[in-house]
Structure formats: C-alpha cells, structure tokens
Design goal:
three-stranded antiparallel β-sheet, 2 helices, 22% helix
C-alpha cells in the first residue's frame, strides 16, 4: 500500500486585466516531494503550456494554491 500523501493541487486561472477578474479554468498537480527554488515558476510554465493556445493568451494564465490562501496577483 502506498502511504505517500498526494501532491498539492493548484488552481489555474485566466485573468482579465481590464476588468480585474480571474476565472478558474482548471487545476494542476504538483507532485514534487520537496520544495525547490523555482516550484511556482515551473508550475506556471506548465499551466501556460497546457491551458493556452497562443502567446497572447499565455500571458493571462496564472497559478495559485487556494489551500494556502494564495491567489494570483492582478497588476494595477
């Protein structure tokens, strides 16, 4: 039996900078067992690759760990 706990689930958002809103579009699972220097950046790159169809749309993709109370920042 496998006693490993599952990885953390991050919500992937499409952000609308003009309206200052964010729409959840999916989830991505982090399966790394230890923290690394670029964990969040690596997840963001993967989410952009999976959930965007163009470079313009990739800029609007954000990743957040809702279980930690962390949400994507929307620039002012």
């Amino acid at each position: 039996m496998n006693d490993e706990k599952p990885g953390r689930v991050f919500t992937v958002y499409r952000m609308d900078f003009e309206q200052r809103t964010q729409e959840p579009i999916g989830e991505i699972l982090e399966r790394r067992k230890s923290m690394r220097q670029n964990n969040h950046f690596g997840l963001l790159q993967l989410a952009r690759k999976l959930f965007s169809t163009s470079a313009d749309e990739a800029v609007r993709i954000g990743v957040a760990d809702a279980s930690a109370g962390e949400f994507p920042a929307i620039p002012k």
